[in-house]
Amino acid sequence: MKRSHYNQNRVLWAVETSSGLIRQHNEDYYIARPSLGLWVLCDGLGGHAKGALASRVCAEAVMKNVMHGKTLEDSVQCAHEAVKKMEAERSNVSGNPGTTVAALYISGRKWEVAWVGDTRVWLYERSKSRQVTRDHTVVRQLLDWGAVTEEEAKVHPDRHMLSRVVGIGDERLKVGINSGRWNSRQVFILGTDGMAYRDEPEILSEILSTFRNPDQVVDRLKTASFEKGGFDNFTIAVVGRSFGNGFIAEAVKKSRELFYIQAEMEEMPPPSAF
């Protein structure tokens, strides 16, 4: 299990990844680069060695290409090409490794999300959570065609079957894209398919209304994922912004208090301002 978190005046976030309670290996991989405004979550496919490698290659390719000035959509396309090359370049990789991906990129006053597969992103704003990604799955297609209901989709035997995967299929991959204006009242949740409450936005809203910093939200979702059986790997990221966001204000206050306590213990003068 791995936990990362970061806080400053403008951005506060937390990410945790786990193999769950059943699987011995974790095929998820994430990259968090707040200085770049980028968070990437990937869920590998094709068995431990292939899936874990595919998810890492994908995440690193997205980050590298964003750093070099490519759009988020083009960066995911480059990641698709990088994963497709894995089998040819690595003798210990066979078959068709692939991965899902969901990436959040915040630049200036704009946020953008790109995704392939069923790793999801939600936006919490004005006390409500809404999913800003749309699964690339067989069941999502059936829903769009009206062949199944929402309730039937939740228990459908093919609900985890993907219709679009990074590293598998056509040379040109159709990437899902969504974007909006970035403001201080927003909080994003990113989660792979082992995360609890994926189909219950009202519960996500309640959690975000109750807990006031990203670490607490991640802890609650991690605990719920274990309580629901922990059958799959999961990675959960929570990203917020600035003092204007009540979600962050309490955590910043707590960070200040901890600093003063530590400074007093070490007999260090506290800073005049943060």
Number of helical regions? 8
Q: Strand order across the biggest sheet?
A: 1-2-11-10-7-8
**Helical content, roughly?**
25-40%
| Corresponding CATH architecture | 4-Layer Sandwich
Number of strands: 11
CATH domain class name: Alpha Beta
> Rough shape?
globular
- Give the SSE string: EEEEHHHEEEEHHEEHHEH
CATH fold topology: Phosphatase 2c, domain 1
Rg (CA only): 19 Å
Mean pLDDT: 84
List segments where confidence is low: pLDDT < 50 over at least 5 consecutive residues.
268-274
What distance separates the N and C termini?
31 Å
Estimate the strand proportion: 25-35%
Largest sheet: 6 strands, antiparallel
Oligomer: single chain
The SS-based structural class is alpha+beta
What's the helix and strand layout?
Layout: E1 2-7, E2 11-18, E3 28-33, E4 38-45, H1 48-67, H2 72-84, H3 86-89, E5 98-107, E6 110-116, E7 120-125, E8 128-131, H4 138-145, H5 150-155, E9 176-181, E10 187-191, H6 201-210, H7 214-227, E11 234-241, H8 246-265
Antiparallel strand pairs: 1-2, 2-11, 3-4, 4-5, 5-6, 6-9, 7-8, 7-10, 10-11
Helix pairs in contact: 1-2
Would you kindly provide a written description of the structure presented here, covering whatever features stand out?
This protein is 35% helix and 27% strand. It is of the alpha+beta class and 274 residues long. The chain has one domain (2-265): Phosphatase 2c, domain 1 (4-Layer Sandwich). The strands form two sheets. Strands 1-2-11-10-7-8 form a six-stranded antiparallel sheet, covered by helices on one side. It has a five-stranded antiparallel sheet with strand order 3-4-5-6-9, with helices on one face. Strand 3 and strand 4 (38-45) form a beta hairpin. The protein is globular.
